[in-house]
Specification:
The protein is α/β, with parallel strands linked by helices. The chain contains six helices and six strands. A hairpin with a 6-residue loop joins strand 4 and strand 5.
Length: about 210
């Protein structure tokens, strides 16, 4: 399916998007996300996102019932962060996928399991229900997050939320730049470095 760009991703009917199973996508500067950028270094990159709508099939351990509207989100960006170990800048790649289950009101957000059948033996009675386990959330395999949908939904706010959730609590280089130089010095052949005893002997002679 070819993704289409939206005229205004901050104002979209997500229930219609799910029903039509459309795939929409976009790209935007990270600096446009004020909540994300608060407390972070200046962001110069861009985020690429896409959202696939669908309707749930079957009733399974994902908590998704047949006909329930879903959004499958994929977000990619390179965030500029400060390493908490050496203080130098680092680039953190975000490549995240998540699933959102659309509900009609705030009251529906707390009703996670009420719609499921009480008899667990009825789970996965057919192949469609097993497919929903993978389809609901490809990154974790758990319940999709519930959000209140609308016909004027802000997709970019949801993209920003996904980025915020993926910012590491303590960003650090795998190997800090200074540590690389120190390691190289330690590995320098012994014959290339003067013996500290030889240096001391030369000082005594003077």
């Amino acid at each position: 399916m070819v993704a289409r760009n939206l005229a205004d991703p901050r104002n979209i009917d997500v229930f219609a998007l799910a029903k039509s199973a459309d795939l929409v996508s976009g790209e935007i500067a990270l600096s446009r996300f004020m909540r994300l950028c608060a407390g972070l270094p200046e962001q110069e990159g861009r985020v690429v996102w896409q959202v696939q709508g669908s309707m749930g099939q079957g009733t399974g351990k994902t908590g998704v019932i047949s006909g329930q509207p879903l959004l499958h989100m994929h977000v990619r960006a390179d965030l500029l962060l400060d390493c908490q170990r050496c203080g130098q800048p680092l680039t953190f790649a975000v490549d995240a996928q998540s699933a959102l289950q659309l509900v009609q009101s705030d009251a529906d957000l707390d009703d996670v399991l009420g719609i499921l059948q009480e008899d667990e033996g009825s789970f996965f009675d057919d192949e469609d229900e097993e497919d929903d386990v993978a389809a609901a959330d490809p990154s974790s395999g758990g319940y999709p997050e519930k959000v209140v949908g609308s016909r004027h939904f802000d997709l970019l706010a949801q993209v920003e939320d996904e980025l915020i959730l993926n910012v590491p609590y303590v960003p650090r280089h795998d190997v800090c730049p200074g540590a690389q130089a120190s390691a190289a010095a330690e590995q320098e052949p012994a014959e290339r470095r003067p013996s500290p005893f030889a240096v001391l002997e030369q000082l005594k002679r003077k």
